[in-house]
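Hmm, what's this shape?
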Amino acid sequence: MTQDHKEKARSLFIQGYNCSQAVFCAFADEYGIPQETALKLSASFGGGIGRMRETCGAFCGAAMVLGLETGQTDAAKPEQKQQNYHTVQKAAEMFREKNGSTKCAELLQLRKDAVITDQPDPRTAEYYRQRPCLRMVESAVEIVESILGK
């Protein structure tokens, strides 16, 4: 591995990829997933899933990585599903402990009446100064590494 996961995720986010893409793609090559495929798979989860400000995209990216490790692959083995759910719930608990929530709108401290659009915000110095998103990306990567022992 030539670049650590957190640095790779940070770099991807700063390049303009969304939070979910940054986290998922930081690990994808280790699972033989080409970057273009990984970017497409994780694209819809940014901004709290499609910029709807629901579950944090960085956390969604982490859950996707955990699925690569513990996801159910045999329908006749429900214990695989249980193992995956347990792992994702543990990650969610860690994420909430560290960040206060897994919900994008809460992490961004948006008002309940905030207008949600599909228009991404420009990545400016002000964006990085005000938004906790880069911290969420780094946090999600740290949690994945902690759970997987990477």
Remarks:
- The two ends are 11 Å apart (CA to CA).
- The first helix runs from residue 5 to 15.
- The mean pLDDT is 94.
